[in-house]
Write a structure and sequence with these properties.
4-stranded antiparallel sheet, 7-stranded antiparallel sheet, 484 residues, alpha+beta, single chain
Length: 484
């Protein structure tokens, strides 16, 4: 490296174009944060094509064996008859039906309906049986927390049996030892690509992500610092720009000219991505929803366990050929959703009509419009995560939106003002998914990739130039030290 050549590239013509302290701050901050932002860009490319591992509910249900009603239903005395129930579902676990309950006063219970006793922790042998519909297990290991079950959403079902299947994809299934459910699925390909995608992009290594508060603060302050670096770079670039009255647009030479002009061209886009990434963390709760109990207004008061038990017994008497039967209360009445069939408390078919759904929508407030939708809209759409369609959409006079399951009337999604802000300030600006039909898929991915490439180039060039300039500064310091 030639110090003379580097100096001529890095320094503009002598004029008061920006405060020196700001130039130095941008330069030195750019080395550490520039590498981080380059990692964000490159991992973002991977995330366009590979999602973080997950197990959608529909896929999980599709692999469940049918409920063996012949072994059902001994409810026992584990739950008081007057206990209030928020959610209940019957499924098959390792050859016997179980009832999973979420109680209104807090806590969850799982009852073995073949014995009436609380279900014991799932054994290694039972985990193999649970994984059987997915493939042949080749290895089983006990896991409390790892890279793919690190987030807090898995806390209530820890610990797990991690079951490796003998398939070409080296699939790992995570079977909860508490509930007996398969709660996560990964493959060798998804694990490899996510180490290059979501893990660096979200700061998701287990050692950091397992401490949710620390992880949140690290992401927030790193994003703020990245936004500051980008904003300073934009200011310096504009201060040095010569759009009029000069034969050259930039006072710099060599690679510095490319960094200057590329930064001007992509700076706003870079700042948009960094700030919208910051918004995803909802810093200091500025997009916190007030906790509107829309689901409770639709479902009504939580039913007593005695009523839930009677409705499930009535449903069991019909012997429906289903993998799941779950509680689906509506307006204070108990119903059971057995597959796609909705049954009343006596076990009789009770399909929802449009009038029933409209009445449910009216319980949310003053309604501006409501109807059945069969296609996604600007607030209810799939990206890497599927959504349920058709859905009953309720638009309220105050701008809130709710989407109901037309089979049960249950609330699928709600969009209040903070949620709508999150949708546009984070998802819209981060994913650039404003255009209907252009929110996912290869066309969307290629379009965003075209935007990402020049941003990554500009960031990488800035990091390289900052490293070179810092090397020159250190060289000059050594020369001065030797001359003293």
């Amino acid at each position: 490296m030639s110090p003379t050549a580097t100096r001529s590239e890095a320094r503009p013509a002598r004029r008061a174009w920006a405060p020196r302290w700001l130039v130095v701050t941008h330069r030195y901050l750019g080395v550490a944060l520039g590498l981080l932002m380059l990692a964000w860009c490159l991992s973002g490319v991977v995330m366009l094509f590979v999602a973080y591992p997950s197990l959608p509910q529909d896929e999980r249900l599709a692999r469940l064996p049918q409920i063996d009603w012949a072994r059902c239903c001994a409810f026992g005395e584990a739950i008081a008859p007057d206990a209030r129930v928020e959610a209940a579902a019957v499924e098959q676990v390792a050859g016997r039906p179980v009832l999973r309950l979420k109680l209104a006063e807090g806590g969850r219970r799982t009852i073995d309906l073949s014995t009436g006793q609380r279900m014991a922790p799932v054994s290694r042998v039972e985990a193999a049986a649970v994984a059987g519909p997915w493939g042949h297990p080749s290895a089983i290991a006990a896991v409390a927390r790892d890279q793919w079950t690190v987030s807090g959403e898995f806390d209530r079902v820890r610990p797990f049996w991690r079951v490796r299947l003998a398939d070409p994809g080296a699939t790992d299934l995570y079977v909860s030892r508490v509930s007996g459910q398969v709660v996560q699925r990964t493959t060798a390909a998804s694990r490899f690509w996510n180490w290059l995608g979501a893990v660096p992009h979200w700061f998701y290594p287990t050692i950091l992500r397992q401490d949710a508060r620390l992880w949140s603060q690290v992401v927030i302050w790193s994003s703020l610092a990245g936004a500051f670096l980008t904003a300073v770079g934009l200011y310096l670039g504009l201060a040095a720009w010569r759009p009029l009255g000069d034969a050259r647009l930039s006072p710099f030479r060599g690679l510095m000219t490319w960094h200057h002009l590329t930064g001007l061209a992509t700076g706003v886009l870079t700042l948009t991505w960094v700030v919208s990434g910051l918004v995803s963390m909802n810093p200091w709760g500025f997009l916190e929803s007030p906790g509107d109990p829309a689901a409770d207004r639709i479902a009504g008061p939580a039913p007593a366990f005695a009523d839930v038990r009677a409705a499930l017994e009535a449903a069991a008497a019909r012997r429906p050929t289903v993998a799941q039967a779950r509680l689906a209360p509506l307006d204070g009445q108990v119903f059971v959703l057995a597959g796609d069939a909705r049954l009343d408390a006596a076990g009789r078919p009770a399909p929802l009509s449009p009038a029933d759904l409209a009445a449910a929508g009216m319980r949310l407030g003053a309604v501006a419009a409501q109807r059945l939708i069969t296609a996604e809209d600007a607030y209810y759409f799939s990206h890497h995560e599927p959504v349920t369609l058709p859905a009953w959409r309720v638009v309220l006079a105050d701008g809130r939106r709710a989407y109901l399951d037309p089979r049960s009337g249950a609330l699928l999604a709600e969009m209040d003002a903070p949620a709508r802000g999150y949708r546009w300030l984070h998802q819209g600006l981060h994913r650039f998914d404003f255009v209907p039909g252009w929110r996912q898929g290869p066309v969307w991915a290629v379009g965003v990739l075209v935007l990402l490439i020049p941003v990554a180039f500009g960031v990488a060039l800035g990091v390289w130039l900052a490293i070179r300039r810092i090397g020159l500064d250190l060289h000059n310091l050594r020369q001065r030290w030797r001359s003293t």
